[in-house]
Specification:
Blueprint (H helix, E strand, L loop, with lengths): L1 H5 L1 H19 L2 H9 L10 H11 L1 H20 L12 H25 L39 H7 L3 H4 L4 H23 L6 H21 L15
Helix pairs in contact: 2-10, 5-6, 6-7, 6-10, 7-9, 7-10
Length: 238
């Protein structure tokens, strides 16, 4: 009973992760959504033109901002060892856990891409490409010659945004958790939706990334809790 109580969040998230994989593999939900995104008459994606003009901000800019945020937290962690910024000492574990999330979520997604070998929507024949559509646990047609492995699953770009789900666990007060957790979720949703509307990812890719990043964060903050109990609030945020 104690095991189920202590690890309930992780177990539920793991189940949702598996259910989402099942939906991707055994239904056409991905294609159903993508068919309503893609313009078959013009052969274009809704945000193709937007990305061409503003991709430096909406795509590369957000990635750069996440990297700068991680560098800021690392800097604050380093400053906590100085006498002038000794007050930051209590937040060290928070800084490290968030940085771990920002590093591990995109890294794991990137490494998973190398194994799954799934093409992006814009690459498949259905949407104007020249590659066959294959689900994650299915085989490519026998007559298909693949010269280079695909790297379209899961959603790596969105993983950086959903890594900010760590902000939910970084605060003790409920209102702060809701505010900053919602902010992290919103950034992840924006990054994920942006890629879906560009034909870079299916909705299933993005949902796998959501549950995967949440699972990573649950494990990180379970392994290194920022609110040790019992006792006063040591090494915690407000």
């Amino acid at each position: 009973m104690n095991f189920l109580k202590n690890w309930k969040g992780i177990l539920i998230t793991a189940v949702l992760f598996i259910v989402n994989l099942w939906v991707i593999q055994f239904t056409d939900f991905d294609l159903y959504v993508q068919d309503r995104v893609y313009n078959f008459q013009t052969g274009t994606w809704p945000l193709a033109a937007v990305h061409a003009r503003y991709g430096w901000l909406l795509y590369s800019g957000i990635k750069a901002a996440l990297a700068l945020f991680a560098l800021l937290l690392i800097s604050l962690y380093a400053l906590s060892f100085t006498e002038k910024f000794a007050g930051l000492k209590q937040y060290r574990r928070v800084f490290i856990c968030i940085v771990l999330s920002l590093a591990l979520c995109p890294l794991i997604a990137s490494e998973a891409k190398k194994v799954t070998n799934i093409y992006c929507p814009y690459q498949i024949e259905r949407y104007g490409g020249d590659k066959p559509y294959v689900k994650p646990f299915s085989q490519y047609p026998a007559d298909f010659v693949q010269r280079k492995k695909a790297q379209g699953f899961p959603a790596g770009h969105a993983a950086g945004g959903f890594a900010l789900l760590s902000l939910f666990f970084a605060f003790k007060k409920r209102k702060h958790r809701i505010i900053f957790g919602s902010l992290g979720l919103a950034i992840g949703i924006f990054m994920g939706t942006y890629q879906i509307l560009r034909g870079q990812h299916y909705i299933g890719d993005t949902l796998v990334t959501v549950f995967g990043c949440l699972l990573i964060n649950l494990i990180i903050f379970r392994r290194w809790p920022v609110f040790p109990a019992p006792g006063p609030d040591r090494g915690q945020t407000a």
